[in-house]
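Q: Could you fold this chain for me?
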Amino acid sequence: MKPVTLTMTAFGPYAGRQVIDFSALENRKMFVISGKTGSGKTTIFDAISFAMYGKPSGDHRSASEMRSQFADPKQLTEVSLLFELKGRTFLIRRTPQQEKPKARGGGMTTAGATAELYEKKANGTEVLLASNVRDTDEKINELVGLEANQFRQILMIPQGEFQKLLMAGSQEKEKILQKLFQTSFYKRVEDILKEKSDALKKEAGRAADQQMALLKSLPAYSSTMRALLEAELIQRKAVFDQLELDLLEMDKQFKSFQEKVQHLSERRDFLLGERERGLSRNAQFDRLEQARLEQKELDEQKEGMERCCRKIDGAERADKLQSYEMMEKRARQAVHTAEGRKSEAEAEMQNTRQLLEEAEERLKAEESRRPERDECTKELQHLQSIKEAVYAYQDAIEKAEETEGRLKETKQAAAEFIRKNEELDAARKKTEASLQAFDSSKEIYLESGYQIERLTALIEQFQELADAEKEMGDLQKREEAAQIEAQKAASAAAKAIKELEHKREEWHRSQAAMLARELKEGEPCSVCGSIHHPNPAAGGEAPLGEQALKKAEQQVDRLSQENRQAEQKWMESRFALGHAAENVDKLKAKLPSDFGVEEAIERLKEAEQTRRQAAQDLQQKQKLEGQLDELKKQKQQLEAELDQTRQQEMMDHTAFIQAQSTRQQLEQSVPEAMRNSGYFARELERIEQRAAVLERRYEQAVEDVQRARTAMQAALSVLEERQQTLQEAERDYREVRAAFEQKRQQAGFGSAEQYEEAKKWLESLAEMKETVRQFEQKERELTLLIEELQTTLQGHERADISKLEEEIGALNEEAVQWANEASSVAACAKESRRIRQSVEEIAARMAKAEEAYRLSGHLFEVTHGKNDLKVTFERYVLASFLEDILTAANTRLSAMTNGRFLLERLTERSKGNAQSGLDLLVFDQYTGASRHVKTLSGGESFKAALALALGLAEVVQNHAGGVSLETMFVDEGFGTLDPESLDQAIETLMDIQADGRLVGIISHVPELKERIDARLEVGQSDTGSKAAFVFTGES
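A: Sure. Below is the predicted structure, expressed as C-alpha cells.
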C-alpha cells in the first residue's frame, strides 16, 4: 500500500481542509516530517490509519475524539485517502461519529460514522466497492490482507512503544505478542487437552466399575465358581478358567437332555401321524354317507327336469322364427309410412294450385298502373337536374353566416388572450418568490439520508450483539441443563448396574431352587455329584425369568450409552458457550461506548423525521418548479395562439365577402320554391320513394307468379313418386307375410297362440339350460364319488381317535419336562458366555482409554509448562515468532552497530516456578558475553528498538500472507544518537526504501533535515495547523 493523496478536514489540529500530496515526492523514497511538539506530525499517520480502518494509530484515542477543536461547528470532520495497491488505485473516504448543529432549530445532533470505498480506473471513472462502514472494513481487510493492529505495527514505529517491548519481561512480552499474532488458539489447545484427559480418566474408571459388576453377576454353576465370586478380590483369570470347566459340564448335560427329548419327540410324531390317518379315514366314511343322501334327493327331482327340457325345446324353435317375424313387422310399418307420405303430397298439391291463382290476379292489377309509374319517373328526373344548384345555394348561405360568426369569435378570443397573458405574468412572479424558501432542502435531505444509513447500521450491530447475548444465555442454560442431564444419566446408569447385580443374584437363586426341586436322596446332584442333600436351596414365590434378566441387561447397556451421550453433549455445550462468549466480546469492541441502542434509535427517529420533512419540502419545491415551468409554457402557448387568432380574423373576413358574392349568383338559377334545401330534399325523397314502391310492387308480382308455377310442377312430381312407393310397399308386405306363416307351420306351431306361448320362455332359456346342465353334472359326480369311496374303504373300520390323543398328551408332558431342563442349562451357559464377552469388550475399551489417557495426560502436562524449560505451548509458539523477529532485527542492528550487538532470546529456565522463554539478551562482540537489554545506553537501546520494530514489521507482514506495504513511518528517537549512529540508522532506513518502500521520519533532529532533501513541514498557529512539502533549494 502506497499513499498518493491524503485529505484531512477538521481532523486533529488541522482546522480546515488539509491536502498532503505524496506524489510531489516524485522519485524520492525518504522524507522528514518536522514541526513543533503538538503541531500534528503523528496526526498524519493517525489520519492514514483512520482512513484505512476507522481507528487512529494509537489506542489512547478513539476516532470520535479526533475532531479538530479549531473547526467551524458546521464543518464535518472527514478524511479521504487516495492510495495505490498491487497496481490498482483506490479512494477511501470516512467520517467519524460527531456532533453537528441541527438543520432546523437550535441545539446539536449526532451524525454517525460513514465510509465509502471506490476504485479509480485508468479512464478516470470511479467504481463504488462499498458504501457503509461494515462493508468498507471487510473490503479493506480483503484487499490489504491485514487487520488494523497488524497494519499499524508494519507501517508505524511509534514513540517509545518498542522500547517497552525491548525491555519487557516474559509475561509482559507474552501479552504483547498474543495481540500481535493472535495466539489464543494455542491456549485453547491446552484447555482442550486438559478436558480430554479428564474425560478419558473418568471413562477408564467407569469401565473398571462395569467390569467388576459384570464379574459379580456370573452364574455360580459350581461350588468352585461360587467361592471365586464370593472372594473379597475377584481374580478375572481364575474366574475365566473355572468358567471354561463349568461350560464343558453344562454342554454335556444339555446334550443328554436333548437326546431324551429327541427320543420322546420321535414316538410322539409317529402317533401324530396315526392320528391324522385315522381322522382322514373317518372323514371318508362320513362323506360316503352324505353322497348317498344327495343321490336320493336328485332321483326325486328328475320329473321336474324333464318338463324343463320340453320348455327349452319350444323356446329354441321359437327363437329361430324371430328374424322372420321382425321382417313381417318392418314390411307392415313400411306400408303405413307410404300411405301417410302420399296424403301429405296430395295436400301440398292443392295448396300450390291456390297460391298460383292468387299470384296471377296480383300481376294483372300491377300491369294496369303503368301510366302512374311513367309520370312519377318524369317528375323525379326534373328534380335531379336542379339538385346541384339547390345545394350550392344553401352552402353559400350557410358559409356566409358561418364566416360572419367566426369573425366575431376571433375578435373576442384575441381580447381574452391578452387578459390571460397579464394574469400569467403575475402568477410567475409569485411562484419564483415562493421557491426561494426551499433552497437548502436537498442538502438537508441528503445529509439526513446519510445519517439514517449510519444509524441503521449501528442499530443492526446493537441488535446483532443482543442476539449474540441471547444466544449465549440460551447456550449457558443448555450447558447447565446438559450438565444436569449428564449427572442424571450417570446416576441412572449406576442405579441400573446395581439393579442388574441384584436380579442376577435372584436369578441364580431361582436356578438353584429349580435344580433343588429335582434332587432325590441317594441320587447324585447334577452340579456337585453328591448323593446326600441335607440343605437344598429354597425358591421364592415368583422365580425371576431369563427374559426379565435380559431386559435388565439391555437397560444397563442403554443407560450406559445414554450416559456417554449426555457427557458428550455437555462437552459440546461448553465448547459452544465459549465460542459464543468470544463472539459477544468481539461485537462489544466494535460498538461505541458513549451511548447505547436506545439513544441510537432516538437519533434515528429524529433523522427520519428530518428526512420526511425535507422530502415534503422537496416535493413542494418540485411542485412549485413544475408550476413555474407550466406557467412559462402557458405564456408561450398564449402568445402563439394570439398570433394565430389575428391571422384567422383576416382569413375569416375574406371568406365572408366571397360567400356573399356566391349566394347572389346562385339565386338566378334556382326557383324560389326550391331555394330551401330542406324542402327540396324532402320533395326529392318523396318522389324517389314513390317511384321505387311502384316499381317494386310490379317486379314482386312477376316474381310471385313464376315461383308459384315452379312449386306447382314440383308438387305434381312428388305426388306421382309417392303413389309408386305405396304400391311397392303393399306388394312386399304380402310376400313377407306369406313366408312367415309358412316357416311357423314348419317349426311345429299349428297356431299363432302356440308360437306366442313358446316365446314366453325365451328370457329364461339360458337359466333353464344351466339348471339342467348342473343337475346332470352333479348326478355324474355323485355316482363316481360313491364308487371311489366304496373301493377305498373296503376292508376298513372307523379309527379310535381319543385313545391316540391320550398317549400323545403323556409323551408331550414328559418331553416338555426334559426340554425345560435343557433350556435352563443352556440359559446358564448363554448368560455366562455373554458376561465373559462383555467383560472382554470392557477390558479392551478400558485398555484403550488408559492408553489414550497416558498420551493426552502427558500432552496436557507438557503444554501447561510441566516440562524442563517451564514453557507452555502458547509461549513456545510465541518464542518461535520471537526468534523470527530477532533474526530479521539482527540484520538491521548489526549494520547500525558495526556488528557489535546481536539480540538473542534467553533460553535458560527461570528459578522456582516462574515461567520463562521470552526474555531478551544482547550479545556484545566486544566482551564476547551476553547481558540483559536493560544494560544498553539510550542510543543503543534506540537502535535495538528500531531494529526490533523493523524486524517485527517484516515478520507480521510475512505472516499476513506476504502483503506488500510500500510505506513506513518512524516516530522520534533519533535525538539520542551520535553522528555516526545517526548515519548508521539512516543507512538502515535507506536499505528499506531501496526496495521501493516510502519512509517518513517524524523527528526534531536538525541533522536529519540537512541529510534528507524532502521535508513535510507542519506549522502551528492559533487557528490550527498547516502542512506542506519542502524540498532542498526551496524556501
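A (continued): The mean pLDDT is 79.
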